[in-house]
Amino acid sequence: MSDKQNKLWGGRFSESTDEFVQAFTASVNFDQRMYDQDIRGSIAHATMLAEARVLTPDERDAIIQGLNEIRAEIEAGEFQWSVALEDVHMNIEARLTERIGVTGKKLHTGRSRNDQVATDIRLWLRDHIDLIDSEMSRLMHGLLGLAEREAATIMPGFTHLQTAQPVTFGHHLLAWFEMLRRDRERLADCRKRVNRMPLGAAALAGTTYPINRERTRELLGFDEICYNSLDAVSDRDFAIEFCALAALTMTHLSRMSEELVLWTSAQFDFITLPDRFCTGSSIMPQKKNPDVPELVRGKTGRVNGHLISLLTLMKSQPLAYNKDNQEDKEPLFDAVDTLQGCLRAFADMVPALVPNREAMREAARRGFATATDLADYLVRKGIPFRDAHEIVGKAVAHGVAQKKDLGDMSISELRQFSDQIDEDVFDVLTLEGSVSARNHPGGTAPEQVRAAVARARAALAG
Ligand code: ARG
């Protein structure tokens, strides 16, 4: 068979495709990932066509059986993918005709690759959104478990990466949880717009066959159909939206990564990561590097890049389908793979991290972390806050000079700065006193952390 005849669209052509152009325009090397979605879409389409009496029941059965056999061939690694057949859609269709004969050529009735590919990507993305959702949920449950165990563990809270006030480690972990909770909401929201069906739009204007789009929608589990055929085949906003939420989730993971990297350093020493999440150095025998969080931090860049790629791909495209859109797949696939992999690594790693409670506590103790508590104490004794701030500032300066934390000073030492200070000051200068006093919803008190964990667990279950 000559190259020209080999093409499913070769009818109007008088010479075969340039060899380089053939490879240049082909997408089969990457879009074969959507083989299962393509086959599911075709089975639903054939089922609907038979109900609409466009295909006979025998033709439908032959098509469905042929497609299921092709799926088995692909999964057994026996399918011969051909670049000459351009993409996953034509590879499967050509193989169907090879297997079942002329009936195979009827599958494409009332359909175009334009609505077919748009349907396949949406099905593929929907499947992967569900996988990503379960990794997110696994990570979130892991965070809740760790936060509960560390509800009363004291660590320094930072602003400007300078010790600010003591917080509980559990509270810090719940801040991560909140970021992910919003990411997961965005994912669920994106799924709603992904889960709409382009099939039936055909090439761009719809089809003259008596199709029943509602039936195909139902068979494929879409929530709705796309209501305009031109829009259905052309827009990839759902993929852009996914990349936007993926970039945001990666941004959150990169923030967590950064903290993990800092905390594993000898300078912080707040946590230990199990060896299985780290690697060594080929030259420095003492090294144990936090590779997983470093890589997650680094991979954020590629997902941000994919978002920009897709926005730029879509920008200024006239209606309806343009070949440009074939370029949607690699960025989307890689954004999905990257996010899924990073979430999986985090879900495995986070519950296994070992906090060094002593080092965290010591760091909080050293950094004048209870200075605000002393100011609040003076306010309760009737001193205006600005004056209290000034008094405590002087006490801190004294502490810096004497290399002494506020809690280490004697009562007479403290009283140099204000005669309003009494023995009960030590209740607020302790780290436990400081965190327990922040006892309102959203505050760092151990009691609040435990309540927040319980609320979050109920929300995840519900
Ligand atoms: N491989 C193409 C894509 O990914 C399929 C649609 C092509 N349609 C067409 N008329 N050339 O977008």
From TrEMBL:
It catalyses: 2-(N(omega)-L-arginino)succinate = fumarate + L-arginine. It is found in: Cytoplasm. Its EC number is 4.3.2.1. Residues 11-305 form the Fumarate lyase N-terminal domain. Keywords: Amino-acid biosynthesis, Arginine biosynthesis, Cytoplasm, Lyase. Pathway: Amino-acid biosynthesis; L-arginine biosynthesis; L-arginine from L-ornithine and carbamoyl phosphate: step 3/3. PROSITE patterns: FUMARATE_LYASES. InterPro entries: Arg_succ_lyase_C, Argininosuccinate_lyase, Fumarase/histidase_N, Fumarate_lyase_CS, Fumarate_lyase_fam, Fumarate_lyase_N, L-Aspartase-like. Residues 368-435 form the Argininosuccinate lyase C-terminal domain. It is an enzyme of class 4 (lyase). Transmembrane segments: none annotated. GO terms for molecular function: argininosuccinate lyase activity. Its main location: cytoplasm. Gene3D superfamilies: Fumarase/aspartase (C-terminal domain) (1.10.40.30), Fumarase/aspartase (Central domain) (1.20.200.10), Fumarase/aspartase (N-terminal domain) (1.10.275.10). NCBIfam families: argH. PANTHER family: ARGININOSUCCINATE LYASE. Belongs to the lyase 1 family. Argininosuccinate lyase subfamily. This is Argininosuccinate lyase. It comes from Alcanivorax quisquiliarum. The gene is argH.
